[in-house]
Amino acid sequence: MKDFNVGIIQLPATSDKEKNLKTMEEYVSQAKNKGAHVICLPEMWNCPYHNSFFKKFAEEDFGETYKKMSQVAKENKIYLIGGSIPIKAGEKIFNRSYVFDRDGKEIYRYSKINLFDIEGYKESDTISGGKSLGVFETEYGIFGLAICFDLRFPELFQSFRDFGAEVIFVPSTFMKKTGERHFHLLNRARAVDAQCYVVSPAMARDADLSKNAYAHSLCVSPGGEIIVDLDEEENLAVIKLENEKVKREREKLPLEVSRNNRKLY
């Protein structure tokens, strides 16, 4: 990994998709102007987080939102981690993230594996789970990509570490009730587990369809310190991620040595 600036964008999702796309475009431009090399959007940033809207807003692969993200990445000459959007594939809908390089070319995609099925709400009523995960590489380093509820599954983050990840992006839309109890805790724990930066752009809270969003987009260091918390409002931040911090954390606590030692028994 080499040092780079990451842009975190925190947006509400309105019922007007065109407005959501325009707002995203404006914020990416602002983050670029503040020096961001890699920019990440929240989970379901183009679509209110409700099962009924997933069906209404779902697009075919390479649809309107995909094209807009590709265009924005190319125009701003940045890597864009496109949060996630609802994507139709036959009879199924996936909660999918796309990654674009500085030429607007797709270099990676991930469909959320662990769906938000809890008491009183089931994402799986509309969304189908993905089946695979991995990492992607840029000139800045090797990155992992998860989505929201995936934060509760530490084995995924160990897989990212095993694959060589140094930064893990987790576009999210935690609700207020669970977010207040667990969002900071889970982000810090996964950063410490994997000894990676964890960058989690979240949906902003508003007075309308995103009123139950916890927000509080985070960037957490490999040692578990919170570098930035964007609170509740629509906002952005640009943060420098440093190779030395990943390297030193892994030198101070050589967890992989212990893991390799266990394999001898």
From TrEMBL:
Q: Which PROSITE patterns match?
A: CN_HYDROLASE
> What is the designated name of this protein?
Amidohydrolase
Q: Which organism is it from?
A: Peptoniphilus gorbachii
Residue intervals of the CN hydrolase domain:
4-245
Keywords tagged on the record? Hydrolase
